[in-house]
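Batch manifest line 305
LIGAND: nicotinamide-adenine-dinucleotide
JOB: complex structure
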Amino acid sequence: MIGGGRMGRTHLRALQDSKQVSIAAVTEPFEASAAGLREEGLPVYSTADEMFAKTALDGVLIAVPTPQHTETTRHALEAGLPVLCEKPFGLSPDTARELGKLAAGKGLALQVGYWRRFVPELVSLRRDLAENKYGAPHLLMCSQWDEAPPPASFRQHSGGIYIDMGVHEIDQTLWLLDQDFVDFRAQAFPSTEDPDAHNDVDSAQALAMLAAGTSTVISLGRFYQGGDVVSVQLFGSRGHTSFDVVSPDTGEQPQLTALKAQAEGFARHVGGEAPQGTSAEEAARVLELAHDLTEAAGIAVLGAP
Ligand SMILES: NC(=O)c1ccc[n+]([C@@H]2O[C@H](COP(=O)([O-])OP(=O)(O)OC[C@H]3O[C@@H](n4cnc5c(N)ncnc54)[C@H](O)[C@@H]3O)[C@@H](O)[C@H]2O)c1
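JOB STATUS: finished
ARTIFACT:
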């Protein structure tokens, strides 16, 4: 694993009882974080090159800050290693596509960590939609409200709320309905309670029209006291469903279960099975839409478009 910060540690918790995937070593240059990981018995290196040289690896899980996703991925691919990279896969759709081609040219697996695709209730919903169980899907509403904002130091390079949080809902919508966005409007709460958070505003909402006529609402926010909530509502001509993927009652367990399934699915893909997760090309489209919503909401886009 490259990057042993907040999300890297979440992956470690998710994989602690996996029988198929284990974290053999971690690259983490920040000494305080590295020391904590060493105390847990993990070999920790300050550079990826050192880790690659000293460890037999089947693949790399990348959990570095977003602006470093693509260069870290390129480095691992050049070293001949398959990559499972955290979302949003950098900030630039063009670079995301280019890396997809690089991986394909080398015959290496490259997957982006949109863990919702490994949540059993969402996998069932997708299958039921494909089998027309809900009839015509009129409206899909996806929301993600975090318990509390991340530190300003993270928000300054997150890409903003649509690129950091909204990408999950965009990928989920494209994957569940197999329809692209054709029209949208987006808005954002005009300010943040943390002035150091830059363009990473505290909440934002989007309404989009999809290619086959379904409307979708994406709701994002940084304040939901009691715990994070991720919820989905689907209204169809023959049925409806509404459920929380994560809630203050579930805590992080659904995410940990999905992250473990994601890593195990990636390992099977590296072993030759068909991929289940998000490809670089799909992640590039998600990034494009996240940039579009950011711009439509009137928030400055950080990073290259
Ligand atoms: N899938 C999800 O639900 C989810 C949730 C949270 C964060 N994330 C993603 O995970 C990524 C990391 O977020 P985070 O909250 O863990 O940030 P973080 O800042 O807590 O952790 C990043 C870590 O990477 C390390 N690092 C920086 N440069 C490095 C390098 N060149 N090589 C190795 N390590 C390096 C830092 O020292 C830090 O410990 C972000 O891209 C974020 O979007 C995903």
